[in-house]
């Protein structure tokens, strides 16, 4: 996920302080990985330097000055360009799971056990996401569906790998 583009997109609704941007990000997108304040402010500093945001106001208080950021026309154009570009599909050709299976076979460890352990972990996470989806709002349901579909594909691969394990073992050890 592009943090900078996401923060720019959030600014399109109007100027905000860094604290407000973090809160809006975490509410919409950061359920599993909330932003750190330092990440927000370093990103805003970079966007400011690149002319994609401007300081719309500064408030003094008992603590440090609070800057309110606004998106510039260049920032709006940058977000529009980013939204218009398709994301590169991730084909997972360098899968850690595949690497573990091959290494288990090469080192004569139990690759079937590795696959079973991984299957159990996938199923555990799928149950957790399904519970979250059932109690969540539509946006949360959609992100859970996205994750569940990927986990289902992984499960299919785990089953296929288990079915082909003997043949893979003979090829890997040859």
Protein architecture, described:
Helices cover 67% and strands 9% of the residues. The mean pLDDT is 90. The protein has a 3-stranded antiparallel β-sheet. The protein has 174 residues and is mainly alpha-helical. The two termini are 41 Å apart. The relative contact order is 0.09.
Question: What structural keywords apply?
Answer:
single chain, 174 residues, 3-stranded antiparallel sheet
User: What portion of residues belong to β-strands?
Assistant: 5-15%
- Radius of gyration over all CA atoms, rounded: 23 Å
First-last Cα distance: 41 Å
Coarse morphology: elongated
pLDDT averaged residue by residue: 90
Order of strands, main sheet, comes to 1-3-2
Order of helices and strands: HEHHEEHHHHH
Number of helical stretches of at least 4 residues: 8
Taking the sheet with the most strands, its summary is:
3 strands, antiparallel
Low-confidence stretches: none
What is the multimeric organization of the chains shown?
A: single chain
In which range does the helix fraction lie? 55-70%
Structural class, please?
Answer: mainly alpha
Number of strands: 3
């Amino acid at each position: 996920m592009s943090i900078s583009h996401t923060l720019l997109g959030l600014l399109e609704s109007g100027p905000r302080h860094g604290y407000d941007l973090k809160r809006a990000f975490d509410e919409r997108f950061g359920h599993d990985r909330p932003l750190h304040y330092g990440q927000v402010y370093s990103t805003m500093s970079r966007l400011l330097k690149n002319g994609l945001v401007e300081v719309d106001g500064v408030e003094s208080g008992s603590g440090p000055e609070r800057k309110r950021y606004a998106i510039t026309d260049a920032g709006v154009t940058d977000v529009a360009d980013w939204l218009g570009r398709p994301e590169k599909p991730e084909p997972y050709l360098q899968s850690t799971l595949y690497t573990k299976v091959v290494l288990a076979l090469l080192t004569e460890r139990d690759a079937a056990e590795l696959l079973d352990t991984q299957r159990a972990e996938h199923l555990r996470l799928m149950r957790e996401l399904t519970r979250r989806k059932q109690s969540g709002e539509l946006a949360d349901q959609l992100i859970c569906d996205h994750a569940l579909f990927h986990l289902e594909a992984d499960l299919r691969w785990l089953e296929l790998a288990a079915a082909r394990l003997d043949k893979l073992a003979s090829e890997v050890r040859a």
